[in-house]
Amino acid sequence: MLDPMSALSVAASAVQFVDFSIKMVSKGRELYDSPSGSLEENLRLKRTTKALVDRRGNVRKALNVDSLRPPLAISDTEADLLELCENCLKVGQKLVDRLASLEVKEGEKHRRWKSIRQALKSEWGKKEVNEMRDGLASCKSELMLYILISVQYVF
Length: 155
Hints:
Layout: H1 4-33, H2 40-63, H3 76-101, H4 111-124, H5 126-154
Helix pairs in contact: 1-4, 2-3, 3-5
């Protein structure tokens, strides 16, 4: 017979395992039923990331960088902004690629099992995705600060 603490530990482990299993089956079902083969939270994050990354082209166009012949024709501040945009692009592309790796592709063999596997990968890779999301949020904040400062000097 087990002592009370050991019994409580075994019961807690069993409850934790059942809870984790329910989450994985739920996420697997969401992936299986999803027309895009992606979790809703990942779709939202992917759309937001792509929108931010697409703004990089607008910044390059606003600075008229692509039409400049000598690369020295921009100021240090503008060069810093371009570097910040490039960093945002790198982090954003890495995040989009990671989210794409968690999708279940259309017409894939053994889609049910693949959905459960991708749900597990999604849960295990959540820390990495959150770190990339936080890095992108930091880039976004820096861009917003730069824009606010620039607007202040224009007016």
